[in-house]
Design a protein that fits this description.
It comes from viral metagenome. This is Tail protein. With about 150 residues, the protein is of the alpha+beta class. It is built from 3 helices and 5 strands, in the order H-E-E-E-H-H-E-E. The longest helix has 16 residues. The relative contact order is 0.22.
Length: about 150
């Protein structure tokens, strides 16, 4: 049985985050991506910048009433990327702004994600921890997609 559309979306998010590499397109490099959230103080410094994407709440609504067609349920999935930054020399203010821009650019412009969803939009960023050398951010998105009720999403 094929992966659910929800799993395919999260797989595409993981791949897009893993492709963030400083250069012509991005300002930061993501060195570690995982769905297994590790406390920022316990993560090896060589794994920073680190991104931890999680699929959170989902709402569903009937998209086509009494339909025998596929893709008759519209779902909205909340995705949160917890992003860790470490700097050994300075504050992380510039790095925070660069990281948020890079994550948004990666997810909003990824062809695989865009092929799976109707729409993906940023919902906000919240700093969770800010110290002289560490920052932890939560960057949230919502993605709308369709699925067949017989497949269950």
């Amino acid at each position: 049985m094929a992966d659910s559309i929800r799993n395919q979306i999260l797989d595409a998010v993981i791949a897009a985050l893993g492709a963030i590499t400083a250069g012509a397109t991005y300002n930061r490099t993501v060195n570690y991506v995982s769905e297994d959230l590790v406390h920022w103080e316990k993560l090896d410094k060589n794994k920073f910048d680190a991104a931890f994407p999680l699929d959170l709440s989902e709402t569903d609504e009937q998209f086509a009433l009494y339909s025998t067609a596929t893709n008759d349920i519209k779902a909205t999935l909340e995705i949160m990327v917890t992003y860790y930054i470490w700097s050994g020399v300075a504050t992380t203010r510039q790095a925070r702004g660069d990281a948020v821009r890079d994550v948004k650019k990666a997810l909003l412009n990824d062809a695989t994600i865009l092929g799976l969803v109707l729409d993906i939009r940023p919902m906000g960023t919240e700093p969770v921890v800010i110290t002289d050398h560490y920052s932890v951010l939560e960057i949230r998105f919502e993605a709308d997609y369709l699925y067949d009720h017989t497949a269950g999403g």
